[in-house]
Write a structure and sequence with these properties.
The complex is a heterodimer of chains A (502) and B (366). Chain A has 502 residues and is mainly alpha-helical. Chain A is built from 15 helices and 8 strands. In chain A, helix 13 packs antiparallel against helix 14. The radius of gyration of chain B is 21 Å and the shape is globular. Classes of the chains: A mainly alpha (502), B mainly alpha (366).
Chain lengths: 502, 366
């Protein structure tokens, strides 16, 4: 395998893995804070017990997110040094601000929340979990702004003397239309995973403890968990669909190759006639695709490929169907290459190419990644609806292996949907690391040999695999313990045991 | 001569400011994470019983994650303010940084998972993960910073765009010179001492007395290594362009660092836990300042062997526009971060711990 392939595998493995923990951290921090707020407002023990129970599961997950997150920040420089040098003037700032504004807030107040039950007043202690939740949100803002810039590099100019992109307008980076739709899509999807997790865990326990004859107040608490989790899942699911639709409408403009590959468009349909393909070749409703993406003309894969070979750029005006040369950075970079007798076509397709399939992302991955993201995501939402129906009124279903299987699968499906989404959007940006500007291959670290990258990707994979087994076992152990019995919270004197400790 | 050659310029005020800010972030990281590295390394050695080990872990429990953010912020600040520094350094030191990351993953998981299961085998395993995970980063950082003081060899590399970039030209094994190994051992021994004094400051009972004794022995080792390292580093190495007054600063801060270790050792033997910890804190701060005094203007690269564009403060930096925006953000956020971090240390988690404070029940483990 070539060095760029190994480094891409490593980035894919470590990022998809890291992002299993991130959406749960984002959503469970808020949902735990809501439960604790409900306890504070109502004084009901059920909410405190739920807070402690889901807080613990949240922390087991949070730890993994933290340790795998450090790898993310370092590997830009380690594996993608020329990417980092090229974009650092724009891309570095959100990463620095994420650490400075979000990570400090998150880590300090999570620490206070874990260890502060007996040292802070109730109001102050509640504030710490909310501040930690704010930290997770801010973190997502910065990192999605950075990623959206890679998808659509606005607000930047090219500096030919230093050979790099430079920030022209932070405002433009933060109002990037891709960012404004991608961030809500990411956040709502995070709540799909958190909702599915809480609903499934609470429902599993409700069914199990009911059979074991647990006290009524335990069942009441579990039922609250099922309702809260399911409603979060369903509402977040609806908003994920809406934001996903808006994001798709942006991408068909800024990344037509991604969407052409995702919808498997092999011929150009003008005048609102493009059908939607449910499966490859199964065409439904001519014009549905134009309606979905809000465009008159949808360019096909062969047209886009030929256009790139002829003119060196890939964007089209969706109303007129005419090619457009891209934003400031993209055009300035292309003309700077011309000054050196180079072009993007040379870099991506090689010299004197007559076809250039590598200018289009992998069709199979895009087509199926897109459909799996939507399909399994909707299945997990369906699970939430079923749970609400099965537990309506005072109903509690009897234990059944199929029900247990459903509880296991529901949160996994929501996380799989998110993983497919990232694979779809990142593979769909290929062959670019910065869309329409820097090819992925050119972003690689020239000073890192194949050996060290093989070494690191193998060790990461093995270590992450072992940690996944440990994490899941711990989660299962604490889920099976159920709600904690004793929940006394008091300010204690120096000689007494801490109410929470490592 | 290509159009990408940039004539040598004097660094701007913003570039100098950001070098200082990066230095502050590394100082914060080494001073704070330094003691929790020390505590982590000491867990299997200083804690004889499980309860004692848990006391040790709980002294840094609420803080270690926040301490680690200083490293993330330092990395992020280098990326944002000096992309050329971040790119060349992080790719050049691929394997050392990979080892650091493995160490940080191991110890991070060990903190959170160790006490969540009461099987002694499980706990012993995590205690060793904690110790090894806490040993690797300071060892690698010590070797690394010693190499930056000497200057990492760099050279030009032509890109496919027709531009030239400056990359690390040395080898992984070439980093392990005797001087660099002393740097690694110095960081490990200093943080062990720093960690012992932190435990001394934050605990009561048997564990407190044992930490004082450990610190006393380790402090001597750290002191001797510091004397050798400060003299060797300041006599033997000078990077091109280094200013005379900064050499003086490097000498003074190096000597003060040694004095601070001696002071800390003395205060520890006088049973003054707070002052002992202040001593190792100042020693750590002074050592990092000594390193950064050697980084101006070459930011730890040896350009005397570089035939291409020199990689230094000016050529590695971001545009003035980006530096200005980052400066505004830092001016607002750094004081806020310092205030709530200080509240966490001196307000909420002020008191000392003993084995009596550790709940026996595993289900209450955080």
């Amino acid at each position: 395998m070539s060095p760029d392939t190994i480094s891409r595998w490593q980035f894919g493995i470590t990022t998809v893995y890291h992002f299993l923990f991130v959406p749960l951290t984002i959503s469970l921090s808020v949902m735990t804070a809501v439960l604790q707020t409900a306890w504070r407002k109502s004084g009901k023990d059920a909410y405190l017990r739920l807070t402690k129970f889901f807080g613990k599961l949240f922390l087991i997950n949070f730890a993994m997110g933290v340790v795998t997150g450090i790898v993310q920040e370092f590997q830009f420089g380690m594996n993608w040094s020329e990417y980092s040098r090229f974009v650092g003037d724009i891309f570095g700032a959100p990463l620095a601000l994420e650490a400075l504004i979000a990570f400090f807030l998150e880590s300090t107040f999570i620490g206070m929340w874990i260890f502060g039950w007996d040292r802070l007043s109730k109001g102050l202690h509640l504030a710490t979990i909310w501040l930690a939740a704010v930290g997770t949100f801010l973190s997502s803002v910065f990192i999605i702004a950075a990623n959206a810039w890679m998808q659509n590099p606005v607000g930047a100019v090219y500096n030919p003397e230093l050979g790099r992109a430079e920030l022209q307008s932070l405002g433009a980076v933060l109002t990037n239309p891709v960012f404004l739709t991608q961030w809500p899509h990411t956040i709502t999807a995070a709540f799909v995973s958190g909702g599915a997790f809480m609903a499934a865990v609470a429902a599993y326990l409700l069914i199990k403890k009911n059979k074991e004859g647990a006290p009524a107040e335990d069942l009441v608490a579990y039922r609250k968990g099922v309702k809260f989790g399911s409603w979060v899942l369903i509402i977040a699911g609806v908003f994920t669909v809406i934001t996903g639709d808006l994001l798709g409408k942006e991408m068909v403009q800024t990344q037509p190759t991604k969407m052409a590959a995702a919808e498997n468009i092999q011929t150009t349909f003008a005048d609102g006639k493009a059908p939607f393909q449910l499966l490859p070749g199964v065409e439904l409703f001519p014009g549905l695709l134009n309606w979905l993406y809000g465009t008159d003309v949808i360019q096909s894969v062969p047209t886009l490929e030929q256009q790139f070979l002829d003119q060196g750029y890939l964007q089209f005006d969706s109303k007129t169907g005419q090619p457009v040369p891209g934003n400031t950075l993209q055009t300035e970079f292309a003309s700077s290459l011309q000054d050196n007798n180079l072009s993007l076509v040379n870099l991506v397709c090689g010299d004197n190419a007559t076809t250039c399939p590598q200018a289009i992302p992998n069709g199979t991955i895009e087509f199926w990644g897109f459909r799996l993201m939507i399909g399994v995501g909707l299945l997990s939402v369906l699970g939430g609806i079923l749970l609400l129906i099965m537990t309506r009124g005072s109903k509690i279903p009897n234990p059944h292996p199929l029900l247990t299987a459903m509880m296991v699968v529901m949160p996994l499906l929501s996380l799989a949907a998110i993983a497919f989404g990232w694979i779809f959007t990142e593979m769909g940006r290929q062959p670019w690391i910065v869309n329409g500007t820097m090819p992925t291959l050119q972003g690689l670290s020239p000073s890192v040999g194949v050996g060290p990258v093989w070494f690191s990707v193998i060790v990461y994979t093995l270590l992450y695999g072992v940690l996944a087994v440990i994490e899941v076992r711990l989660l299962l152990k604490y889920i099976k313990l159920g709600l904690p019995e004793e929940v006394a919270v008091s300010v204690k004197d120096e000689a007494e045991p801490l109410s929470f400790a490592y | 001569m290509t159009i990408f050659d940039v004539p040598a310029m004097a660094p701007s005020a913003l570039q100098v400011l950001w070098l200082l800010l990066v230095a502050v972030l590394w100082i914060g990281f080494f001073f704070l994470e330094g003691f929790d590295f020390g505590v982590g390394m000491l867990v299997p050695f200083l804690g004889k019983k499980d309860q004692e080990r848990r006391v040790m872990l709980n002294t840094v429990g609420p803080h270690w994650d926040g301490n680690e953010v200083w490293l993330l912020t330092a990395g992020g600040a280098m990326f944002a303010a000096f992309p050329g520094w971040y790119a060349t350094l992080f790719s050049g030191l691929y394997l050392p940084l990979f080892l650091v990351l493995l160490g940080l993953i191991l110890r991070g998981v060990a903190f959170e998972y160790r006490s969540k299961n009461d099987s002694p085998a499980w706990r012993t395993r995590w205690d060793w993960a904690m110790a090894i995970g806490s040993l690797i980063p300071p060892l690698v950082f010590g070797v690394g910073f010693a190499n930056f003081l000497k200057g990492l060899p760099v050279g030009p590399h032509e890109t496919a765009f027709g531009t030239s970039v400056t990359l690390f030209t040395g080898s992984f094994l070439g980093l392990f010179t005797p001087f660099a190994l002393i740097g690694g051992l110095l960081f490990v021994s200093l943080f062990l001492t720093h960690g012992s004094f932190f435990i001394g400051l934050k605990t009561r009972g048997e564990i407190h007395d044992r930490a004082q004794k450990f610190g006393s022995t380790l402090g001597v080792i750290a002191g001797v290594l510091a004397v050798v390292f400060v003299i060797w580093g300041n006599v033997a190495y000078q990077l091109p362009g280094q200013l005379g007054w900064l050499r003086t600063v490097a000498w003074i801060t190096g000597i003060v660092a040694v004095v601070c270790i001696a002071f800390a050792w003395f205060m520890n033997s006088m049973d003054r836990d707070g002052w002992a910890f202040v001593g190792t804190t100042l020693a750590t701060v002074m050592l990092v300042v000594m390193f950064f005094a050697h980084f101006y203007p070459g930011i730890g690269f040896d350009n005397s062997v570089n035939t291409g564009t020199p990689l230094d403060l000016t050529t590695a930096s971001s545009s003035p526009h980006t530096l200005t925006i980052m400066t505004i953000a830092a001016c607002i956020m750094v004081p806020i971060v310092l205030i709530y971090s200080a509240w966490s240390y001196f307000g909420v988690f002020r008191r000392r711990l003993s084995t009596a404070n550790i709940p026996a029940d595993v289900t209450t483990a955080a």
